[in-house]
Design goal:
Layout lengths: L20 H10 L5 H11 L9 H14 L17 E8 L6 E2 L2 E2 L3 E6 L6 E6 L4 H15 L5 E4 L6 E4 L2 E4 L1 H9 L3 E4 L9 H21 L3 E2 L2 H16 L3 H10 L12 E3 L8 E4 L2 E4 L10 E4 L3 E6 L2 E7 L6 E2 L6 H6 L17 H13 L4 H14 L2 H13 L6 H8 L17 H19 L1
Parallel strand pairs: 1-6, 2-10, 6-9, 13-17
Antiparallel strand pairs: 1-4, 2-3, 4-5, 7-8, 11-14, 12-13, 14-15, 15-16
């Protein structure tokens, strides 16, 4: 065999850009982002007799070669090694482009999309808002369907989970508490770097494409109800997850099990109302109406509220506070303190009886100028707030303080106008005439017969 001949590239036609290429290179060096169409238009404008749009494809090839040999470095991506059971990711994706209609009406919506990067297992739920409640509900439904909890959950810099502290982005207390219930660590990508949540970002496009293809096969984007559309989505998700079962099984082996209850399931406590008119729920002291003293109540402690029942009757609802806190409503005890003002000085929960800074300032002013009557006078003012309007009383107190007047009860009443009735009004309720109901029924019966005839 003879020696292989060395291949040599020879240009077979004149290079149309030979005389201007130095100018093109100069412009590309200054503005690397210039597109070939922009440069082609510039060449046509400058040398209209030499160039037209038939030269565009040649220019595009020349620019691609220049960028490969002399252009700026491109952004490098780093493929990640996904570990079984290590991470889950979630994000919302808009689905308006699917043109779904419910009962003939357009159905703009998003999907809360949850997936496991290792096995690619995914699920999705219809969502109307990017709120904390929708985020928490979406995650809760996803791990319940999965039957296990990954070690870490990654989101974008969602306002539902992340708050800004200057240049720092930190997780909200609610999101930390929520994931802590599931024994999961929160994770987020850096601001503006959505590719760091890239597994779910890529899955958005793939899922929506699958839904769009299935809608075209179905021949219609019309659904009679949201429930019917949800069944359609579930069917597509089941199809997509069938080929992921083997890798999903690997993940499930190393994942943590679900907690004994959902995050938003309440814990039940059976406190007895103390003689102080208080109950203790999860190491937090709450006041309740004094008529309940000695009664056993049922308290349902939800993540954010506590609801208190006597039997099946709701008697009170209040925000759930951190352990060690206390919430005393002055309206529950003020009537008794007015009768026993001497108990106020050393009352264990005295600081709770200042509804605002203005009330505290009033008490301090009374203590300076009328120390012997300060407690009694302040309690009488607080009782007036309970019996009329706290806002009106506070406004009157602020006016007196601003005028440098001593805020005594009489002066507050004059400004507020004590509108409490001095006696119970007499109410007369006439006995209904039952014959009128008989006449009405007879009239309706005759009307129905006429319609049938």
């Amino acid at each position: 065999m003879g020696e292989a001949k060395e291949w040599k590239w020879r240009q077979t036609h004149k290079d149309a850009f030979a005389e201007v290429w130095t100018d093109v290179e100069s412009m590309l060096s200054i503005g690397p982002g210039l597109q070939s169409q922009t440069l082609m238009q510039w060449l046509i404008d400058r040398w209209p007799e030499q160039f037209d749009w038939s030269h565009l494809r040649t220019l595009q090839r020349r620019i691609r070669r220049w960028r490969a040999l002399q252009g700026p470095d491109q952004k490098v991506m780093f493929p990640q090694e996904h570990i079984p059971g290590k991470q889950s990711q979630s994000d919302w994706t808009h689905c308006d482009g699917l043109d779904v209609k419910i009962d003939g009406q357009p159905f703009p919506h998003m999907l809360f999309h949850f997936m496991l990067p290792y096995s690619r297992w995914e699920t999705a739920f219809i969502s109307r808002a990017e709120s904390f409640d929708c985020l928490a509900m979406g995650y809760m439904r996803a791990v319940t369907e999965l039957g296990a909890v990954p070690e870490e959950h990654r989101t974008d810099n969602l306002t539902a989970a992340v708050k800004n502290h200057g240049h720092r982005h930190v997780f909200t207390e609610r999101w930390n508490a929520f994931l802590d219930h599931y024994g999961t660590k929160p994770s987020k990508n850096n601001a503006g770097e959505s590719h760091e949540n890239g597994s779910v970002e890529k899955s958005h496009d793939l899922l929506k494409n699958a839904l769009n293809q299935a809608l075209m096969l179905r021949g219609s984007q019309e659904f009679s109800s949201v429930a019917e559309y949800e069944k359609f989505i579930r069917r597509i998700l089941d199809q997509r997850n069938r080929g992921r079962r083997q890798r999903l099984a690997e993940e499930l082996k190393v994942m943590r099990g679900l907690p004994g209850r959902h995050w938003n399931d309440p814990t039940e406590v059976r406190p007895t109302v103390t003689s102080f008119s208080t109950i203790s729920v999860d190491k937090v002291v709450y006041s309740v109406p004094s008529r309940l003293i000695g009664r056993e109540l049922k308290a349902l402690a939800y993540p954010e509220v506590v609801r208190v029942f006597l039997g099946n009757t709701l008697v009170q609802e209040m925000p759930r506070l951190a352990q060690g806190s206390r919430k005393i409503n002055y309206r529950h005890v003020i009537a008794h303190l007015v009768r026993k003002p001497g108990a106020f000085a050393n009352y264990q929960y005295r600081e709770e009886l200042f509804p605002s800074v203005v009330f505290r300032q009033v008490y301090d002013a009374l203590a300076r100028k009328r120390p012997e009557r300060a407690d009694k006078e302040y309690l009488a003012i607080l009782n007036l707030a309970a019996m009329t309007s706290e806002q009106d009383v506070e406004a009157a107190l602020a006016t007196l303080l601003e005028a440098d007047q001593l805020p005594l009860l009489a002066a507050v009443k004059e400004l507020v106008g004590d509108t409490r009735p001095t006696e119970i009004p007499e109410v007369f309720i006439p006995v209904p005439d039952l014959c009128s109901y008989d006449d009405l029924l007879s009239h309706l019966s005759r009307a129905q017969k006429e319609v049938h005839q």
